[in-house]
């Protein structure tokens, strides 16, 4: 059977006929793909836009509650997740359908909040050859694999000690085992900053349908995450702390191996899945994959229609 279309979910903003990936040297050129492979069209989506389309497919045992609160049916939902980078997107309900809202929310600012933050901030390495000591820190600077290493080194430097680890997996393992105080603090701060950023996105979209965490890191640190300051940081949004606590739930995946992901923000999930452009059967575009160890950390609920509207870069053969 000869394929006629290709659909690609890309880690970066979708613009024009050449789409460079944010954290990779690859460049996707859909017109060249059409010419080379003889297909009729190429459809490009942002990777977290694609993840947002899967949210209505999550149900029951997929999620375990972390915080209080109940999701509101047909309310906005947000998905955010650290991995190689930090991605984010929203899913909005309008006119009987779900509309994905892609963005580059992983690149919004992070700021020091506590006295400990202010002590650590000057020691954070800037990833873009920035020499200004007051250069902004974006979410992805700290909330990704290399960001955890950056945060760990900053904690060690602030403490005046030499770092023991040079890779994120070593830091994560030591923190979960509680065998290295610097690693443990770095992972705790990672969770706190992730909670702050996820809470910011929840406020932007008034995501009373829930906030979902996706990506491999959330899956690996699930037990640590549930005991960390993530939830407290998530709801610490004066004057709207009560709204955040009561209206935006947190959930995670069960911690039984193999664990496909770690949900953070949901109390119940719909039974119905989403189709595409009203032409496909009720089926999610993406699902958690136990084999890959990836999935969603979710917060969604209520009744969902059986369709989504997908209007993205669609490039046809000439």
Describe this structure in words.
This protein is an alpha+beta fold and 318 residues long. The protein has a single domain (58-309), classed as 3-Layer(aba) Sandwich (Hexokinase, domain 1). 31% of the residues lie in helices and 18% in strands. Strands 8-7-6-11-13 form a five-stranded mixed sheet. Strands 1-4-14 form a three-stranded mixed sheet. Helix 6 (168-177) crosses helix 7.
Top keywords for this entry?
single chain, 318 residues, alpha+beta, Hexokinase, domain 1, 5-stranded mixed beta sheet, 3-stranded mixed beta sheet, 31% helix
Secondary structure layout plus pairing:
Layout: E1 5-10, E2 19-20, E3 27-28, H1 30-37, E4 41-46, H2 47-53, E5 64-65, E6 77-82, E7 86-94, E8 97-102, E9 109-110, H3 115-120, E10 137-138, H4 139-142, H5 145-159, H6 168-177, H7 181-205, E11 210-214, H8 216-220, H9 222-227, H10 230-235, H11 241-247, E12 251-252, E13 296-297, E14 313-316
Parallel strand pairs: 1-4, 6-11
Antiparallel strand pairs: 2-3, 4-14, 5-12, 6-7, 7-8, 9-10, 11-13
């Amino acid at each position: 059977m000869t394929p006629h279309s290709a659909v690609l979910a890309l880690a970066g903003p979708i613009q024009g006929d050449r789409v460079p990936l944010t954290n990779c040297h690859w460049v996707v050129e859909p017109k060249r793909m059409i010419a080379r492979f003889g297909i009729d069209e190429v459809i490009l989506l942002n990777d977290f836009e694609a993840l947002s389309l899967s949210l209505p497919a999550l149900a029951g045992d997929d999620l375990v509650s972390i915080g209080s609160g109940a999701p509101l049916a047909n309310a906005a939902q947000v998905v955010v997740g650290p991995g190689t980078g930090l991605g984010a997107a929203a899913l909005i309900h309008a006119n009987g359908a779900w509309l994905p809202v892609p963005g580059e929310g992983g690149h919004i600012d992070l700021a020091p909040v506590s006295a400990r933050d202010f002590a650590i901030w000057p020691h954070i390495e800037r990833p873009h050859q920035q020499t200004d000591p007051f250069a902004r820190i974006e979410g992805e600077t700290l909330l990704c694999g290399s960001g955890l290493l950056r945060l760990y080194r900053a904690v060690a430097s602030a403490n005046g000690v030499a770092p023991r680890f040079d890779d994120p997996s070593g830091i994560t393992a030591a923190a979960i085992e509680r065998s290295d105080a610097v690693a443990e603090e770095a992972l705790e701060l990672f969770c706190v900053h992730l909670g702050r950023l996820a809470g910011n996105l929840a406020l932007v979209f008034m995501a009373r349908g829930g906030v979902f965490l996706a990506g491999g890191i959330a899956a690996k640190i699930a037990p640590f995450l549930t005991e960390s300051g993530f939830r407290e940081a998530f709801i610490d949004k004066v004057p709207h702390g009560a709204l955040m606590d009561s209206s935006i739930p947190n959930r995670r995946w069960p911690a039984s191996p193999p664990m496909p992901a770690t949900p953070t923000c949901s109390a119940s999930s719909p039974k119905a899945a989403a189709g595409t452009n009203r032409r496909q059967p009720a089926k999610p575009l993406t699902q958690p994959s136990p084999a890959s160890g990836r999935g969603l950390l979710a917060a969604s609920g209520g009744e969902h229609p059986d369709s989504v509207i997908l209007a993205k870069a669609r490039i046809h053969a000439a």
